[in-house]
């Protein structure tokens, strides 16, 4: 497990492109700006960090996550690639195997599928295949999820596919501060990380994020709100609705604990189990379709390891078992505050 306050990576040999001077941090920033800030910190402090992907250089990325980085660090460290996800993934694995720390971007979650061959067949197997002689310190940044009125292939929530892959970390921040700290930790991790970025909340709100190079720990859940009556478990963009649901429940005298999973694989189940041992009830909220979504894994673990702590069946509030509908019905597909509150009330009434 990464340390809670991991030190900044050491510089690789050779002259750094830019002095390691922190940016001003007295102004609140958005989640997308926190990602840019984290990338810039690592590139200032570690010459082995490179960024690559479609339009990440000259244009600064489709969502502008890499805006200004090519101008600051040059086109040998911020590389515009062809429109070819298979090649991007292959280059990333090759760079990582040769001692670099590549951070690649898949423009949208639905564009990841051509990358799966390199991720599943090579990136995650490199350490065991070579008996530890090689490893693969790569990060794949992926704008994730719906809610921005984008067309097909641009609004998928496919995280559960990758939580089934041994050797792969799957991370999803839900705030600017966690986006900054978790991305630093992901880049410094010696093994491959998929870093899902909930694009619906890229610019939804701002908070102060010190540009101090302090990583947050991977592989742990974050308890965002304490409660005694019911545990609400969620991740990504759904954290906002879940916290709002907790506020609504509090108005009705129900004390809800809210847990942001943050790292889906490996899962910090202990934090969830400890909470459920106190509350006796659990609602899991996620955007992906219900069947075989990652919430099913959490529910199964609760059934196996926490059955005697449960006072009511585990509830799931999810997307539906369809592709996300375009435009008019998109927000109806996503979990809402009303649906989370209703599920919590069912759990409260059941036991």
Automatic annotation (TrEMBL):
Composition-biased stretches (Low complexity): 1-16
Enzyme category, top tier: oxidoreductase
Transketolase-like pyrimidine-binding domain ranges (all copies): 29-204
Region spans: Disordered: 1-23
This enzyme's EC code(s): 1.2.4.4
Alphabetical keyword list: Oxidoreductase, Thiamine pyrophosphate
Named cofactor requirement(s): thiamine diphosphate
Example GO biological process: response to nutrient
PANTHER family named in the record: 2-OXOISOVALERATE DEHYDROGENASE SUBUNIT BETA, MITOCHONDRIAL, 2-OXOISOVALERATE DEHYDROGENASE SUBUNIT BETA-RELATED
Function: The branched-chain alpha-keto dehydrogenase complex catalyzes the overall conversion of alpha-keto acids to acyl-CoA and CO(2). It contains multiple copies of three enzymatic components: branched-chain alpha-keto acid decarboxylase (E1), lipoamide acyltransferase (E2) and lipoamide dehydrogenase (E3).
Protein name: 2-oxoisovalerate dehydrogenase subunit beta
Organism this protein belongs to: Luteimonas salinisoli
Lineage: Bacteria, Pseudomonadati, Pseudomonadota, Gammaproteobacteria, Lysobacterales
